[in-house]
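Duplicate of #3305? Posting structure anyway:
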């Protein structure tokens, strides 16, 4: 049957005028196209799935028929096509983070956050049975991509659950005022260490870089009462600081004065003791000399005593009996009024 047959499959207005040879050529061409196109597509798919690129901050985990075969470093690599080799790209050099109690909504010149609907994460009970609102960030890095992919089913979810459980336990073991004020650093350090220990137990291939507390505040409904308590505590701390300041000023001064009095007393005692010992030694030496020559020693003591007493007595005039006193010489040094002292030979 030919296409020119009136009984052919086409109506008269579309009936082509082709010979059987032409039909064979068309069919052969269609056959070649139908066979060539899949081959070309197959080759294109094979070529496109035979290479991959790993960026500088990434590592490629190669699996052949699902089994781990190796890790590819950054650069261009080739693999078996058609899904025989599959590559999972893992960002090992990038610092990742998980947010708790808030979420970042816009990253621009001014980052915006939201806390709506996240109270289940942030509200915690402290050791003194108070409720506080805690938001924090866990920054981590993938150190071993093989462990990260194959040892834990959902490492991101596991890390999130572990972080929340550890933070609730640490906050629950502390009083609320400690977490709100001076205990923030200790809470962050303890949480990072404990989270790392648990993830190492799971052999997850994750390294916890930091755990940072963002906001630690009381719930909004008790914020006014909390502010009043803070004002009272600040006033108390101010009074304590002032008292400590006065104490630090007065106590050292008083201690210094006491040490000065003690030092003066000790010096005076040493001086009196040494002087008494010297006088006793001098008296003993004079006694020894007196015993050897009493007259000479008595005379010497008398003269020494006069030498000490007479200079303090002022002017001394020595005259003989029944002689006129030398009145004219009284005015040499100006008028004086002193008793006349006579020394008889």
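Output from current build:
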């Amino acid at each position: 049957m030919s296409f020119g047959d009136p009984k052919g499959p086409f109506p008269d207005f579309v009936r082509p005028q082709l010979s059987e040879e032409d039909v064979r050529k068309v069919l052969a061409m269609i056959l070649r196209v139908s066979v060539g196109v899949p081959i070309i597509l197959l080759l294109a798919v094979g070529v496109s799935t035979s290479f991959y690129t790993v960026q500088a901050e990434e590592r490629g985990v190669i699996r052949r028929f699902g089994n781990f075969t190796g890790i590819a470093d950054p650069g261009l690599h080739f693999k078996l096509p058609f899904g025989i080799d599959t590559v999972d790209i893992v960002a090992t050099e990038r610092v990742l983070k998980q947010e708790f109690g808030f979420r970042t909504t816009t990253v621009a010149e001014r980052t915006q956050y939201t806390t709506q609907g996240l109270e289940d994460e942030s509200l915690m009970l402290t050791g003194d049975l108070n409720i506080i609102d805690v938001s924090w960030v866990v920054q981590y890095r993938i150190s071993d991509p093989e462990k990260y992919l194959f040892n834990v089913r959902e490492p991101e979810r596991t890390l999130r659950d572990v972080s929340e459980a550890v933070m609730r336990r640490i906050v629950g073991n502390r009083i609320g005022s400690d977490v709100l004020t001076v205990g923030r650093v200790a809470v962050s350090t303890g949480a990072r260490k404990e989270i790392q220990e648990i993830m190492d137990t799971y052999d997850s291939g994750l390294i916890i870089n930091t755990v940072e507390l963002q906001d630690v505040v009381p719930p909004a409904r008790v914020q006014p009462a909390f502010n009043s308590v803070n004002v009272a505590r600040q006033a108390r701390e101010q009074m304590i600081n002032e008292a400590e300041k006065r104490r630090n000023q007065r106590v050292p001064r008083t201690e210094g004065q006491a040490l000065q009095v003690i030092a003066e007393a000790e010096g005076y005692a040493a001086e009196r003791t040494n002087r008494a010992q010297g006088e006793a030694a001098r008296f003993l030496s004079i006694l020894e000399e007196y015993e050897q020559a009493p007259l000479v020693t008595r005379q010497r003591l008398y003269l020494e005593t006069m030498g000490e007493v007479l200079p303090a007595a002022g002017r001394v005039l020595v005259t003989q009996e029944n002689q006129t006193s030398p009145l004219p010489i009284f005015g040499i040094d100006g008028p004086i009024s002193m008793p006349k002292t006579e020394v008889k030979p």
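Confirmed duplicate; merging threads. Confidence is low (pLDDT under 50) at residues 338-345. Residues 51-90 form one domain.
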